[in-house]
Amino acid sequence: MRDTDRMAKLTDLTVEWISLVKRPANGRGVILKALDSRGGGVRLLKADSQLHRVYGIVYAPDDVDAHGDYADAETIRKAADAFMREARARAVDVEHGFEPVPAFVAESWIVRSGDPIFADEKPGAWAVGIQVEDEALWQEIASGAVEGLSLAGTARIASSKRFFHRFFQKERDMTHDEVRAIVREVLDETVKAAQAEDDREAMAELKKAVTEKESEIETLKKSLAEKDKTLSELDARLSRLEAQGKGAGGGEPAPDVGAHFI
């Protein structure tokens, strides 16, 4: 494991694309597994033409990638789960062209100790088996022209609230339209993140205001209850005085005692 103290740790990793590339950013090749394989797996072995399935590591925990970033096993597991949950199995391209090719993720799993295909890989790594449906593409893979896998997506740096967008550089220069599209997407995500933060702050302020109003209402209720109790006591006293006046004066009206309680 490399020293990750000075590297950027990623959280909230979202993988949008898995790309078949000539030079993988994760530094790992692919494994082609023949039908009669007993699980050993050989790098860049031409597989049985009836299988057309290629195996590789998308991301391994705590390994610093080509961009100086790394992620822990839990972050990688969540990204792998989300990729399958969001039905992105067809999000497979070549050289980060961001256009789907005739291939899909047929298998996705988290490597454990003694993995039958990736026995030497670190537990917690995300492995996939990609089924290739195009003969020409398969021949590129089988010939060694394609050497590995690379991901593209979004993540958050652990020490910052800022999201960043990681679309790896293509072999050719991007067109202006492609650059503008990526910039637009980054801006949209930034605005959404900022809006979500503003919404959370506004909700917290609203909750605080409601709590304060509720407290004021409770205080008012107590005050009204006390006043109601006082009025009830005054009414009872008036009734007693009226009764006493009638008894002493032989039916004459009782003196006006209301003024004593104002």
Task: Give structural attributes.
single chain; 262 residues; five-stranded antiparallel beta sheet; disordered C terminus
Give an overview in words.
With 262 residues, the chain is an alpha+beta fold. It has a domain at 8-168. It is 37% helix and 23% strand. It is built from three helices and ten strands. The protein has helices at 73-85, 135-143, 176-249, and strands at residues 8-21, 30-32, 42-43, 53-59, 69-70, 92-94, 103-110, 126-132, 148-157, 163-166. The strands form two sheets. Strands 1, 5, 6, 9 and 10 form a five-stranded mixed β-sheet that branches. A five-stranded antiparallel β-sheet has the order 3-2-4-8-7. A hairpin with a 5-residue loop joins strand 9 (148-157) and strand 10 (163-166). The longest helix is centred in the C-terminal third of the chain and has 74 residues, at 176-249. The N and C termini lie far apart (86 Å). Residues 1-5, 34-48, 167-173 and 254-262 have low confidence and may be disordered.
Tell me, rounded to a whole number, the average pLDDT: 75
Helix content bin: 25-40%
Q: How many strands?
A: 10
State the helix count: 3
Beta strand %: 15-25%
Largest sheet: 5 strands, mixed
- What oligomeric state do these chains adopt? single chain
Instruction: Flag low-confidence runs.
Output: 1-5, 34-48, 167-173, 254-262
Report the C-alpha radius of gyration, rounded: 36 Å
Taking the alpha carbons of the first and last residues, their distance comes to: 86 Å
Structural class category: alpha+beta
Gross geometry: rod-shaped
Order of helices and strands: EEEEEHEEEHEEH
